[in-house]
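Sharing a chain and its predicted structure for anyone who wants a worked example. Both blocks are below, sequence first, tokens second.
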Amino acid sequence: MYTYEDRMKAVNLYLKYDMSIAAVIRELGYPSRGMLYQWYAEFKENGKLRGDSNHGYSKYSAEQRNQAVKYYLEHGKSLSRTIKALGFPKRTALRDWVHEDLPNNANHEKHCFSGRTLEKCTQEQKEQAVIRLCAGDGTAKKIATDFGVAESSLYTWKKRLLGERCGTTMTSKNTSNIIDKSNAPPKCPGDLESKKSALLQQVEELQREIHRLQLERDILEKAGEIIKKDQGISLKTLTNREKAVLIDALRDKYRLNELLCMLNMAKSSYCYQARSLRQPDKYAALRSTVKDVFVGAHSSYGYRRIHAVVQRDGVCVSEKIIRRIMKEEQLTVPYMRKKKYSSYVGEISPEVENLVNRDFSADVPNEKWLTDITEFNVSAGKVYLSPIIDCFDGMAVSWTIGTSPDAELVNSMLDVAISVLGEGEHPIIHSDRGGHYRWPGWIKRMQDADLKRSMSKKGYSPDNAACEGFFGHLKNEVFYGRSWAGISLEDFMKKLDSYMRWHNETRIKMSLGAMSPIEYRKSLGFVASA
């Protein structure tokens, strides 16, 4: 039975030697593995060990313990036979009792535990057995018999202590002593030379792997720097032209063959792309024109409308070329969705029938008009736009811009729109159920001009989809994706008014044959040409 000091000494050494059980047992000569595990678990849980009076397995009496140890000694020193006959204790408990009561009995246990070697041999005995086995001092069976272990245990010790060859030093992390060189067999020069060659070959392989990883990293960095690719780009998705650009950028640091191999590109393909890159850009003039059209259109034209503008100037080119140039020059139309302004204030007047019924087509101008209010939130404040859109060609008949969505904003817009009507023109004006279109001032103006009112269902934006679409195009083309910091409300309203005029006079619509609304009306004779 071990004292409190003995147990604490074993636990402290276990912590000091980085939890190496073999090192503790080799130095102290005690305890067993299971016992040390138990002491450490108790110390870890309570921060200390129990005193001598509380040590042991409290659920078994001293008489039961003595009975178990006595039966073990008198019946062949078998743990299994003892536990089976008495019905107690657990295997680990009986083994610990035997180790405590018979610490100097080297032959008290004859059986091996599954998965590990016997614990009865000290480290020095294991080293002596391995030395005899390597020196050929008797057969393995004879040596195993002398030490009271199985033959397999000898070879396990040999593998742990010496590795695969007899001439090497110990490599096991569980051993700290070196075999006495005076008793060890001489080292074989051939074995040392073979090991040296293997290590040199391994170093060369590691150097090649480091070089390959460095090459791959440099290619990915150049892809992000030159081609503007994301960091997560895969080399397999690069085009041959992009690969050629990367190879030219890294030719001064790496050989051509390894660059081609890493990028999985044929040399003939690289030569073709390199020759193509050295040639002057045949689309240089067109590239400049596309940029000018895109900037002049408030960065709102896609490749189809830019293609239409270029064709009107007499340049014959395909849409694919325009699209490729825009992609290379990163000419992207900004796009963003925002929560729209709502003017609904309740059912303040009788509802009106939906005369348009989602039919936003018109045969002539001033047949169907759409109206609504939209909000622009800039750093200086909020601005509101109230237009009337003609279903015939999407032209803005009239509009008002202000800083408050009040009755004056929509009434003044309606007054301007009524003033442009010709004799006998009484269009339907369709709106949502906002309060601006249900106040007495709006209703009186509609009745005086003999105009027909039409309203959407409550909270049903598709009933006024054409007007909502106009607002969406407007904000994507002139508002979203731009910084309005430092812009006053007056400057922003001037910018918005300028866009509305540009929309009517210059902005082309593909549905109108790549013409603006004014140009379209002139082509049909609704507006006299200047």
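Comments welcome. The first helix runs from residue 4 to 16.
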